[in-house]
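From the pipeline queue, job 12 of 40. The input is one protein chain; the requested action is below.

Action: predict structure.
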Amino acid sequence: MLPVESSLAITLHLEGDRVGRVEIVSSRLVKASDMLNGRPPAQVLALLPTLYSLCGTAQGLAGLEAVENAAGITVPDAQRTARRVLCLVEVVAEHAACALRDWPALIGEAQDLDGLKPLRPLIMAARKALYPAGDWTVPGGGRLAPDQSALGDVLGGLGEAVARADDVADRLISRIEDDNLEGFGAVPPCLMPPGGPPDLDDRLKADDGGSYRARPDCKGAVFETGPLARQSGRPLMALLMGQYGTGLMPRFSARMMEMASALREVEDLVQDLSGHSGGLPMERTDGAGLGMVEAARGLLAHRVELREGLLSAYRIAAPTEWNFHPDGPLARGLAGASGPDLAGRAALLAASLDPCVPFRVEVRPHA
C-alpha cells in the first residue's frame, strides 16, 4: 500500500438551489512512482503489486508490459493468456468488493464482510495456480504451470461473490428506480477510446512535473474510463444509454454486466491455458516502453525508460484522475443538479465511477 492514505474531497457550491460549481480536491500521490527510478526492472516489478492496496495485479501487469516493450521482449501467447486470466480475476474480485463493501452504505445497509473476506485470497490463489513459483512479474514471463483444479476453486469462489454482489446491486437499482434517479448525472458521453488516448505516450514522456498525470486530457477532452466505456457497445448497454444517457442506471448496470462477462471469459480462457518455461532475455538495456491494462476502474498506463539496464522516468496514469478530473464525468454530471439530498445523490454518482479511494461530499450554500 502507498505510504499515505489518499482521498478525494468533493464540494458542491450552490447557486440558489442548484449546483453552480463542483470542486474536486485530490490528495492522491500522482508522482509516487518517482521512487521507483534508479532501480533494476526485476526489483520494481516484484514490488509493484505490493505497493497498491487495490488493483495490484493490474499495476504489476502494466509495469511488466512497459518494461518488456522498453527491453524489446516479445511475450509468447501462453503468457499473454495467463496474464489475461490474472487481470480478469482481479476485475471480477474488485467489482464484487466494491458492491459488497461500498454499495450497502448507499442503501442504508452494513457491509457484507463474509462476502468480502475471500476476495483477496482468490486473487492470490489465481496467481499461484498459474505461477507456482510466484514469478508472474518476471519480464518475458515466469514458469507457467496451470493447476486446473486450483483454478476451478478460484472460479467457484468468484461465482459465489458475483451472486452476492448481484443481490446488493438489485436492491441498489430498486432504490434508484424508486427515487427516479435512473438518469441522474447524465452528460454527453466522452468515453475513453479503445487502446487509450492517441497522445498518451507523448504526454507521459513530457510530464516531468506531474501536471498531466494529475489532470489528464486529450486535446482538451477529458475521457471517462471504466466499465461504462468498455460496455457501451453492447446492445443492452446501448438500450440503457438510449433511455438514461450516462446516468446512474447505466453506470451501475455496466459494472455488473462487466463482472458477469469477465467471469465468463475467464471460464473460457482457463480451458486453453498451457504451460511455458518463461525467462526470456532482455534484448536491450536502453529504451522506452508503454504498458496499458484495462483495470477494474479503467485504463491504467505505465511508461518507463531504461538506461543501462535501470529504470528511469517511471510514470503512471491512473483511471481516477480521468473520472474525477475537475472537468471530468463526475464534475460535469453534478453541475446544475438540484433537488433533495444533493450530497447523497453526489455520493451515488461518485460510487458509480468508483474512485478507489475514500471520498467525502460537502454541500456549500451560496455565500
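Job complete. The mean pLDDT is 95.
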